[in-house]
Design goal:
- Helix content is 17%, strand content 20%.
- The chain contains three helices and four strands.
- With 102 residues, it is an alpha+beta fold.
- The strands form two sheets. It has a two-stranded antiparallel ribbon. Strands 3-4 form a two-stranded antiparallel ribbon.
- A hairpin with a 5-residue loop joins β1 and β2.
Length: 102
C-alpha cells in the first residue's frame, strides 16, 4: 500500500503483477495438484510453499521427469533447437554448459 501511494504521487499507475497462482485448490490435466493461494506475497521471486503457483518447478518438471527422453541440465544455456520440419516437432536442443569454478 505504501509503495502504491508513493508510485501514484510520482505519476505512475501501479498494477498487480501476474503470478500464475490459484485462488482455489486445483488439479491440472496432467494430475498435478495446486494448492490454494495463501496471499503471502512471495510469488514474484520464490517457489510457492503452498503449491499454488503455476511454476515449472511444480507443474512441468515432475511430469517431464517421468519421460525417458528428458534430462535436466542445471546451469545450462540453450543455444539452439533441433527442429524436424518434416515431422513438425522438436528433436532436441543444443546447450552450452559453462564450467563452474568451486
Amino acid at each position: 500500500m505504501i509503495v502504491t501511494e508513493a508510485a501514484r504521487k510520482l505519476g505512475y499507475k501501479p498494477f498487480p503483477m501476474a503470478a500464475s497462482n490459484s485462488p482455489h485448490a486445483y488439479v491440472n490435466p496432467d494430475g498435478m495438484r495446486l494448492g490454494a493461494c495463501q496471499y503471502c506475497g512471495h510469488c514474484e521471486r520464490f517457489i510457492c510453499e503452498s503449491n499454488a503457483k503455476g511454476s515449472p518447478e511444480l507443474l512441468l518438471y515432475p511430469v517431464l521427469r517421468r519421460k525417458q527422453n528428458f534430462e535436466i541440465r542445471p546451469y545450462s544455456h540453450v543455444v539452439g533447437i533441433d527442429y524436424d520440419a518434416k515431422a513438425k516437432r522438436v528433436k532436441g536442443v543444443r546447450s552450452h554448459r559453462p564450467r563452474i569454478r568451486r
